[in-house]
Amino acid sequence: MTFGDKRPPVIDLADRRAVAAWRPAAPEVVAEAVRLKEAALLDFGLTESAVASWIYAKCHHQIPTTAVATAAVVASGDGSCLLLFNPDFFVALGLDGVKFVLFHEARHLVQRHLFVEPELRNDAVFELAAEVTINHVALVRLKRAGLPERHGSPVGVDPAAVHERYTRDLAEHGLDPLPYAAFVETDLTAYRELKRMKRPPVADHICIHQQTDLQMDQEAVDAVVSSALLNTLLAGGRGHTGARNEINDLMNRSEGGERASRIWGSLGAGSLRGRTSATRRVDWWQRWFVDVVGSRLSEGERLVYPKKRGAVLAALGQDPIMARRGPVREKVVVFAYDTSGSMPAHVVAWLTDLVGRIDRVRAHWLSFDAVVMPFQPGERVFGGGGTSFQAVADYVEGRSEVHGARFEEQVDAVVILTDGHAPHITPAEPDKWIWLITQGGDDWPDRHHPQMSCHRVTTGSS
Ligand SMILES: [Zn+2]
Fold first, then answer.
1. Where is the Putative metallopeptidase domain positioned along the sequence (predicted)?
2. Cα of 439 from ligand 1 centre, angstroms
3. What fold characterizes domain 329-456?
4. What is the model's pTM?
């Protein structure tokens, strides 16, 4: 998916090294383009688009390269996505233009995820409808009066101009055109209306995605976008109004799509609007947990994001650390269950079942009060007096013994199920700790420094 350019790629865009080595731009241009890109993403995270911010957070590699004429998101070989951007193009656009283009590209990924139906995807009129609605949303959301300009000429499809052409075409054939606002209301209304034209405008206008589409792997797009939507939903649920509005708007715009409603239903997005999906029970904490554990257990060395990106993620209340690929080894997860709280059996049963379905994971189950006691799922656990998170940390970090033995393994994740009522701790590796807090409990790890992954579980009967 490249913005506003028809030139076929000169090299394999999924090949990171080839892309980075291709005819490099002048170092000062590259530096300025990178600065613009970072500034744009910071604004997205803080105010303008939580979805775009999350999507680019999941593009592990962001490469300035002249191998693309504009900007493109492509799938890399390892199933993740790459952001490629032409440094001269970004510098010519300036910050506002860069934001427009990055927002536009992110929306294409969302579109591709929500409307994967082949009869739509291969339809040039739907492509144009997407250009129209994406640019309309970008103009509104980024508060712009017009398209970005490069050397004085506008870049991309102008939704108002397309609407004008549509109005003229329909009027010439005695049909009633929709006013602009209704025309751009959803992706499918724009599509349906363009189809009413005698000769819908296509190829000569649109930002060409077909060539690079060949390199887009739908699975990679789905993984990146569904994670971005989930995190935006969660941020919305936690009171981030920008995230909440954006998701609501996206749901409205994708109305009428079969796959889109399925996706919104399975994400439990209806609960943002006070309705629950008819098809399944909404348990956000479970979706959150799968995402968080997934990122802890994915392969490879850990990399910390640069400071600005960290600030973006921190603004959304998220952990700024992400895993990278590397050699495969068995992962170790410790589940520690606070016997002083009231944890219904179905929560433990759900966790046990989940762990059973993850490949190459070894789980250790501990119960704890003031001391730590290993147990097997299904066994009854009994609690004594007091609660100590420090007892769990001491054991997991190899400082204390249980039944005369130390815990020798290197953990990848520590999951604590608790009501949170006990002295606070800072573990040696806080980014590995995931706290599940029962209803009515204290979610202090969320406000702790350093902040730890933390979510309330629904402990009502189900
Ligand atoms: Zn486009």
1. 38-149
2. 45
3. Rossmann fold (3.40.50)
4. 0.62
